[in-house]
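Per your request, structure below.
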């Protein structure tokens, strides 16, 4: 059985997680930064693919949309029934709103596993992360081009134990990545001067 399907992809939302490519490589490719919806047309700022699909093809394209961490892919049938939505529903009833606050001097706790020293190498276009389990003793060096590959490697290696430390690492790696892209100075723990 086949069905007419419309796939709408918002490339501007894409963070390059590549989950859609893993699930549906016949429909998505990677341009080095973001996913690309193959054989699509540009309509109102989105990539749109209209195609008759069999059940297996539809299953793959639905999986690609469901795995997208930023809801960049919408799948609908020709009648307008949404199979996978690209929007997030906000529950107004019972919604809690919290004002963020944090005092680094009072609340900071060192990760018992150690700490990281981060720098960029403009000549190789890479981010370098050194892991120190003790003060100024580097035992592991992780290099990469993108924050995702670096922090996932650090997690897989078991070099981090605290969620706040992981959040800090993600923030610093993203700053380092931006500094590399913009060819500006990166200093760990300092704000970027854009």
């Amino acid at each position: 059985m086949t069905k007419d399907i419309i796939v709408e992809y918002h490339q501007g939302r894409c963070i390059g997680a590549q989950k859609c490519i893993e699930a549906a490589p016949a429909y998505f490719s990677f341009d080095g930064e973001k996913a690309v919806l193959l054989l699509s047309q540009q309509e109102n700022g989105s990539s749109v693919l209209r195609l008759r699909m069999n059940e297996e093809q539809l299953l793959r394209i639905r999986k690609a949309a469901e795995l997208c961490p930023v809801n960049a892919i919408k799948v609908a049938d020709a009648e307008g029934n949404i199979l996978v939505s690209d929007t997030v529903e906000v529950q107004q009833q019972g919604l809690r709103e919290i004002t963020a606050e944090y005092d680094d001097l009072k609340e900071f706790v060192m990760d018992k596993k150690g700490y990281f020293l981060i720098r960029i190498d403009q000549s190789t276009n890479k981010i370098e992360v050194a892991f120190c389990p003790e003060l100024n003793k580097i035992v592991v060096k992780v290099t990469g081009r993108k924050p995702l590959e670096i922090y996932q490697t650090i997690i897989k290696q078991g070099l981090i134990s605290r969620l706040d430390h992981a959040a800090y690492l993600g923030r610093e790696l993203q700053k380092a990545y931006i500094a590399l892209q913009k060819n500006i100075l990166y200093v760990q723990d300092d704000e970027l001067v854009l």
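Residues 6 and 50 are 5 Å apart (CA to CA).

Regards,
D.
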